[in-house]
Amino acid sequence: MNMPTDPLKLVEPRLTSLSHGGGCGCKIAPGVLSEILKNSAGLLPKELLVGIETADDAAVYKLNDTQALIATTDFFMPIVDDPFEFGRIAATNAISDVYAMGGTPIMALALVGMPINVLSIETIGKVIKGGQSVATAAGIPIAGGHTIDSVEAIYGLVVLGLVHPDKVKKNADAQVGDVLILGKPIGVGVLSAALKKEKLSPEGYAAMIANTTKLNTPGAKLADMAGVHAVTDITGFGLAGHTLELARGAKMTAVIEWNKVPFIENVQALAAEGYITGASGRNWGGYGHDVDLPSGFGDVNQALLTDPQTSGGLLVSCAPSAVDAVLDLFRREGFESVAVVGRMEAGAGRLAVVE
User: Which letter, b or e, does each residue of 144-179 get, where b requires 16 or more Cβ atoms within 10 Å of its Cβ?
Assistant: First the structure.
């Protein structure tokens, strides 16, 4: 064991060893969450354009005829050991919910829970600096927040944004015949599982950081595209879970064409080797009864379909006539893996996967 030269200096553990579930993989299972929230709607003023009814990405409150306020919060435990990168990933993930509503972020507040008897002030400061670097890239201030002494390390943001009330991109407004476009490749949960077991290559780690710290900036511009009907982002419930939310909200069937789904490099091989998060199984247990899989789909593919994404990509439901413009927008913003992955059909709140 490496002992510190200064007997008063903390011997710090790996950040991921302090979390029972890293990143969006620590979300409450979807079935349990639905049960918790089923009777919690409360007061619904007419100005509240988006609440919890369709499990959308953020709340939206109409301020006036030209402005609506988007409010969201997201926080989680470490998915990587580097404190600066942990802060970057958590902040990128939180800001994404504003983009997923078609909004422009304007301000954030930090949520910080740290075991101060375990982690040094320097390490905690790096987490906060990482979050600040992403906020700066998004053009917003972190104007305050709240801190607590916590058993597990927790970091995230409350994020506020603005959008025109008529241009809010809900997750429930998909239309029959829409095309589904995914902005980022999937597989972050698999990479995080390999990282926790110290089996992730340097190339895999670099790909994981690049994917999770890329701001979903196309979202703000999607608001001005009439052919874009619905948007959400893929996070802890995986590609299947968040696509299913799109289908349930619109009371349709979403179809995912599995051979068109983009993956982070080497993710499928790692999944086949068993690097799968527990959240993947919990996700399937929560919503698998509403998902139709092709014959012989297999356990590995099912795990990838339900793999929890931390700071994942936007999923866009748009008219066929808007597909080229949406793809061009994402590519201009640096999303080279953007792909058409499916379609919306008449149905009743289900997801169908075809090969």
Answer: ebeeeeeebbbbbbbbbbbbebebbbbbbbbeeebb
Average pLDDT, the chain: 91
Sequence-ordered strand ranges (E) for the chain: 48-50, 59-62, 68-76, 104-114, 142-149, 154-163, 179-182, 228-233, 252-257, 291-292, 314-318, 339-346, 350-354
Give me the mean pLDDT over the 289-304 stretch.
Answer: 97
Please identify which of the residues 16, 22, 23, 24 carries the catalytic annotation.
24
d(CA 161, CA 67): 10
Runs of H (alpha helix) within 232-321: 238-250, 267-272, 278-287, 299-305
285: Cβ contacts below 8 Å, ≥ 6 apart: 29, 31
DSSP 8-state assignment for residue 77: B
> Phi-psi region for residue 177, left (φ > 0), alpha (ψ -120 to 50) or beta?
left
Residue owning tokens 């609506």:
68
State pTM to two decimals.
Answer: 0.90
Contact status, residue 222 vs residue 329, Cβ threshold 8 Å: yes
Over residues 318-328, the pLDDT tens digits come to: 999 999 999 99
Residue 204, pLDDT above cutoff 90? yes
Complete DSSP assignment for 287-303? HGGGEE--TT--HHHHH
Token readout for 87 is 């802060």
Residue in the structure block whose two tokens are 């949406």: 326
Q: Is residue 26 annotated as a catalytic residue, yes or no?
A: no
Rounded CA separation 290/14 (Å) = 38
> Could you tell me which residues come within 8 angstroms of residue 33 by beta carbon, excluding any fewer than 6 positions away?
27, 286
In degrees rounded to 5, what are phi and psi of residue 353?
-105, 130
Diameter of the chain measured on Cα atoms: 67
